[in-house]
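Reminder to self: tokens first, then the designed residues, so the page reads top to bottom the way the pipeline ran.
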């Protein structure tokens, strides 16, 4: 059944739901699969996220769009895997440090545009990373009524930025404009060991993002549902934080304390959101989703075992680079439990669209809604999941550098229990596909490609059929 609301075609409300719920999507930055207690973490403490997992559905086999931030965000926002996204790797330009996703050129809508069509008020706070002000690819240009954000992923490395963007207009944070000599002294290894003392008088961007999110929820009414997208920057490097508690007394390096404190702060603010939803009495009519944009950094993984049994880190297409947490919390609607359903970031667009009740072009995207699973119904499944990752040449343009601007470096496929990885495509002339049986080898330690040539052949055919080139990301330099 279809409904017509404000000239837009909407789906009938899913069976069992009295009205369209509020939707909050939180995406951490570089949070590893095993950095939450509910996913096996033994050092760090995440009581609020663990409670969220206990009261909701915890997915064991959920994947990011890819293993670095910009293409992963485009995948999530558009419902496309990286064979079909326009941006397939980080890519610098002269526009505020980033290459804007050309939404108009590729004719794709974002999650926010779909739910706005369903009558949702839309807002985001955090790291956008898909296009700057005036590009036509900023958040307010792509469906958000309100935004407080880093537009550039490069600027988001600084947790005490001299400016942010509110509704795509620059706002200056004068207290963060430190003398040049202090900035110089805080670079590199010196920054890692400096501690938080010089940072306590400045404005920490995450505090602004979290407080604004809480303000938006507090001001929300019952007459109009809201969609709130929170791509928080924690715990991405530089690993800056004004207060390293509750880890201050640990005999760790300052970097280790800061990473732990950033994850504790992230957990605290998820808890604040959950508590506010309960106080307002809207928790039973709010879907809260929590995930990460890719796997952890090497720095975090070495000390906190951030990926548990998984191989690889951020930048890899082994499981550790792309398998991430997904927790869905929806009190009174979901039956709490653990799901082994295999899903990916590009499934979030159709899932959220169906929750909102808005029609979307299911035959034009790669995602499959997992709302049926959430409501206890029969769930369609992917036959394949696909990733590809380009490496950007940060020395491109230097006279002595002869390499191209970027190149295809890794490809991967999940096919049932099978995981295929083709690494080092550019750097090795005879790169070959590796095959792993995840049911028996979740750590991807034993390549069994020689034992299963038909599986390899089928996956190779799928890879070939799912690659789409564009001038910025060519198959061959």
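Designed residues (477 positions):
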């Amino acid at each position: 059944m279809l409904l017509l609301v404000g000239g837009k075609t909407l789906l009938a409300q899913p069976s069992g739901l009295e009205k369209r719920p509020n939707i909050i999507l939180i995406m951490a930055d570089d949070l590893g699969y095993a950095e939450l207690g509910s996913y096996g973490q033994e050092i760090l403490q995440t009581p609020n996220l663990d409670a969220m997992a206990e009261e909701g559905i915890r997915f064991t086999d959920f994947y990011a769009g890819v293993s670095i931030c910009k293409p992963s965000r485009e995948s999530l926002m558009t419902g496309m895997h990286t064979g079909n996204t326009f941006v397939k790797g980080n890519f610098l330009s002269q526009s505020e440090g980033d290459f804007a996703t050309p939404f108009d050129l590729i004719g794709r809508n974002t999650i926010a545009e779909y739910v706005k069509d369903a009558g949702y008020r839309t807002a985001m706070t955090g790291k956008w990373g898909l296009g700057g002000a005036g590009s036509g690819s900023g958040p307010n240009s792509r469906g958000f009524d309100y935004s407080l954000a880093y537009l550039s992923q490069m600027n988001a490395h600084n947790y005490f930025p001299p400016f942010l963007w509110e509704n795509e207009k620059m706002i200056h944070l004068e207290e963060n404009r430190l003398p040049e000599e202090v900035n110089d002294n805080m670079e590199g290894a010196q920054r890692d060991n400096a501690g938080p003392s010089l940072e306590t008088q400045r404005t920490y961007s995450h505090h602004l993002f979290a407080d604004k999110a809480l303000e938006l929820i507090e001001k929300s009414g019952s007459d109009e549902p809201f969609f709130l997208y929170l791509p928080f920057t924690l715990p991405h490097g530089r690993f800056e934080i004004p207060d390293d508690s509750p880890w201050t007394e640990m005999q760790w390096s300052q970097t280790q304390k800061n990473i732990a404190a950033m994850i504790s702060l992230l957990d605290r603010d998820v808890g604040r959101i959950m508590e506010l939803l309960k106080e307002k009495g809207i928790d039973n009519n709010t879907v809260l989703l929590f995930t990460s944009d890719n796997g952890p950094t090497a720095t975090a993984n070495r000390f906190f075992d951030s990926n548990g049994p998984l191989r690889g880190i951020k930048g890899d297409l082994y499981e550790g680079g792309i398998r991430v947490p997904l927790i869905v919390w929806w009190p009174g609607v979901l039956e709490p439990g653990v799901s082994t359903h295999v899903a990916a970031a590009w499934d979030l667009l159709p899932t959220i669209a169906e929750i909102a009740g808005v029609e979307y072009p299911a035959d034009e995207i790669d995602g499959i809604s997992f709302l049926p699973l959430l409501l206890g119904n029969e769930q369609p499944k992917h036959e394949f999941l696909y990733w590809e990752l380009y490496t950007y040449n940060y020395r491109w343009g230097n006279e002595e550098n002869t390499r191209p601007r970027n190149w295809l470096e890794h490809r991967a496929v999940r096919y049932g229990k099978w995981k295929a990885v083709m690494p080092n495509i550019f750097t090795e002339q005879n790169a070959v596909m590796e095959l792993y049986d995840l049911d028996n080898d979740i750590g991807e330690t034993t390549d069994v490609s020689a034992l299963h040539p038909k599986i390899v052949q089928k996956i190779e055919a799928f890879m070939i059929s799912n690659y789409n080139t564009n001038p910025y990301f060519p198959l061959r330099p």
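DSSP finds 13 helices and 18 strands in the chain.
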